[in-house]
Amino acid sequence: MASRWRAVEPSGRNGGIFFVAGMLLGSACGLVVGSALGFELRPERMRAIRKVIRRVMGERNDEPRFDLMV
């Protein structure tokens, strides 16, 4: 069984093909995940996420700013 699996040299042609295939696969997955997140994270949701993060971190800024109401 050991003779069936050959060692692949990283500097050989097969190593380069595996590297390029991995790079293309990783880029495609990143593009798909990034597009899905960009589509789902609308400005309203981003504001809500930031508000939750601020509350979790302890920063309370719920008071109205009267200087902006003029």
Q: What does this molecule look like?
A:
The chain has 70 residues and is mainly alpha-helical. The chain has a domain at 13-59. Helices cover 61% and strands 0% of the residues. The chain has helices at 13-40, 43-57.
Primary descriptors:
70 residues, mainly alpha, 2 helices
Outline the fold blueprint.
Elements: H1 13-40, H2 43-57
Overall pLDDT level? 79
Structural class: mainly alpha
Cα-to-Cα separation, first versus last residue: 81 Å
Strand content: under 5%
Number of helices: 2
Q: Number of DSSP strands?
A: 0
Backbone shape? rod-shaped
Q: In terms of per-residue confidence, which ranges show pLDDT below 50 for 5 or more consecutive residues?
A: none
Helical content (DSSP H or I, runs of 4+): 55-70%
Q: Main beta sheet: strand number and arrangement?
A: none
Radius of gyration: 25 Å
User: Element order, helices and strands?
Assistant: HH
Q: How do you describe this structure in short?
A:
The protein starts with 12 loop residues before the first helix and ends in a 13-residue tail after the last helix. The protein has a domain at 13-59.
